[in-house]
Specification:
The chain is an alpha/beta fold. It has a single domain, classed as Acetylglutamate kinase-like (Carbamate kinase, 3-Layer(aba) Sandwich). Helices cover about 35% and strands about 20% of the residues. It has eight helices and eleven strands. Helix 1 packs across helix 3. About 45% of the residues are buried.
């Protein structure tokens, strides 16, 4: 049963591949995966239905591979396979923490996960399972941020929670300017005009058209995921 002070009943959590890489920046860190599992379990205990879209950037980035001579479509498919590795790792750590979990992939891999079928995904969520969406959109040229906006629209998620390692959206890069101001509320079109690289154009447009707000927050501050779900003023809200 949903907690009375829950802001949303169903959300889509977007995790980049880098959130699973720990301090190394690449590969898979089991401690990072276990930490994410703990945060998701605490949030799920509030009664929120949670679906996850995971990136694959800790293993492979299609866009970068395409710049060094690999065909872009092939490079993107390689990236999608990276998301499947991450999804299986997350499934294992989630289940070890006591969460009932299903992996659904946009690319057929019937030996290790289910195909993405919208109605089945909805049923899993209604039964209290955490659903991890792997394989991006299943098509090259689309980012996993776009996959997050697409899946959020398909399952009727009330918000996209974009987990990062920074506080939220800044008016300029805080790594280049330590005095950069955090923007608590951001209009998606204004964000694109200002060239703030938070999500790509396709993802932003899809979320905007379906009236799904995106919360950008620091997932590595313990308890932040719960606080966002409770409606506390954390990070940035993109509308």
């Amino acid at each position: 049963m949903a907690h009375k002070d829950l802001r949303w009943k169903r959300v889509l959590l977007k995790l980049s591949g880098e959130t699973l890489s720990g301090k190394g920046g690449s590969g898979l860190d089991v401690h990072a995966a276990a930490y994410i599992a703990g945060e998701v379990k605490a949030a799920h205990a509030l009664g929120c239905e949670i679906a996850v879209v995971i990136g694959g950037g800790n293993f492979i980035r299609g866009e970068k591979l395409s710049q060094i001579g690999i065909d872009r479509a092939t490079a993107d498919y390689m990236g999608m396979l990276g998301t499947m590795i991450n999804a299986l790792a997350l499934q294992s750590t989630f289940e070890q923490s006591g969460l009932s979990t299903r992996v659904m992939s946009a690319i057929a891999a019937s030996d290790v996960c289910e195909p993405f079928i919208r109605r089945r995904a909805l049923r899993h969520l209604e039964k209290g399972r955490v659903v991890i969406f792997a394989g991006g959109t299943g098509s090259p040229y689309f980012s996993t941020d776009t996959a997050a906006a697409l899946r959020a629209s398909e399952i009727g998620a009330e918000a996209i929670l974009k987990a990062t390692n920074v506080e939220g959206v800044y008016e300029e890069d805080p790594k280049k300017n330590a005095g950069a101001k955090l923007l608590q509320e951001v209009d998606s079109l204004d964000m694109l005009r200002r060239g703030l690289k938070v999500m790509d154009l396709t993802a932003v447009t899809l979320a905007r058209e379906n009236k799904i707000p995106t919360m950008v927050f620091d997932v590595f501050k313990k308890g932040n995921l719960e606080r966002v779900l409770r409606g506390e003023k954390i990070g940035s809200e993109i509308r």
